[in-house]
Amino acid sequence: MEFMEVTVPNYSYVFNFEKKFIHQDTRDWMQNNWTYGFYYCGIYMILIFSGQHWMSSRQRFELRGLLTIWNTLLATFSIIGFTRTAPELIHTLRNYGLYHSVCVPSFIEQDRVSGFWTWMFVLSKLPELGDTMFIVLRKQPLIFLHWYHHITVLLYSWFSYTEYTSTARWFVVMNYFVHSIMYTYYALKAMRYSPPKFISMVITALQLLQMVIGCAINIWAYRYLEPGQKDCCISKHNVHFSLLMYGSYFILFARFFHKAYFVGRKNTKTSNDDYSKKIKSN
């Protein structure tokens, strides 16, 4: 595939570790070690479900201090990642249009900033598995959406990086943005602050919007994979996997949104009404 030469955003400052980033080295490592993702996911599954069994007869751990540090670190990382990758997406859309943003990969040799933080994004999916251990050790409900989401994002991110998938710039920026808000919210909760309740609803709504945009980007890219269309740096296998993943996420997040913010509120209101009636009757 041949694409026109492009310019990169005018970053106000480029760190030395970004300047030294060599995208081909990281790609070679991912291609040579792609099976590691499956091993990590297997270990993850064993740990969380055996951990639940082990915790079933024990008191929950509070872990509030560790949880505060954990969420603060992930929030900080996500905010930095967003501020370093969003300029490239905005620059591409402004100067080259939607087709280029969907079909030409961003982590090319010229843009080492975007390349480095895309690589960091992929690697971050491994430590993010640690979210689940807090749920297990604090004996909170572990829903299917949680661990399914963690596993599939890790595997898909590693797979896509080896292909230099062009749609990744959209997925990376969106995920960094949502996680910036989500982990900041969790950090504040762990610190015993009480952010407005509507923020949690906004976060889930943003996750749903992320899935809708993800599906739309994949469908847009798939159009260019038909014979006679323009080049697009994404495989049909990748589009199929991504659509299945984003589609399933949308269904699961929509179900969670409905149960958490509509069914849950209805049940709470009913319980409060019943309690009020009981008080009045006494």
From TrEMBL:
It is found in: Membrane. GO terms for molecular function: fatty acid elongase activity. It comes from the Eukaryota. One of its GO terms (cellular component) is endoplasmic reticulum membrane. InterPro entries: ELO_CS, ELO_fam. It catalyses: a very-long-chain acyl-CoA + malonyl-CoA + H(+) = a very-long-chain 3-oxoacyl-CoA + CO2 + CoA. The chain crosses the membrane at residues 37-55, 67-86, 144-161, 167-186, 198-219, 239-257. Signal peptide: none annotated. Its main location: membrane. Its EC number is 2.3.1.199. Keywords: Fatty acid biosynthesis, Fatty acid metabolism, Lipid biosynthesis, Lipid metabolism, Membrane, Transferase, Transmembrane, Transmembrane helix. One of its GO terms (biological process) is fatty acid elongation, polyunsaturated fatty acid. It is a multi-pass membrane protein. Belongs to the ELO family. This is Elongation of very long chain fatty acids protein. It comes from Aphidius gifuensis (Parasitoid wasp).
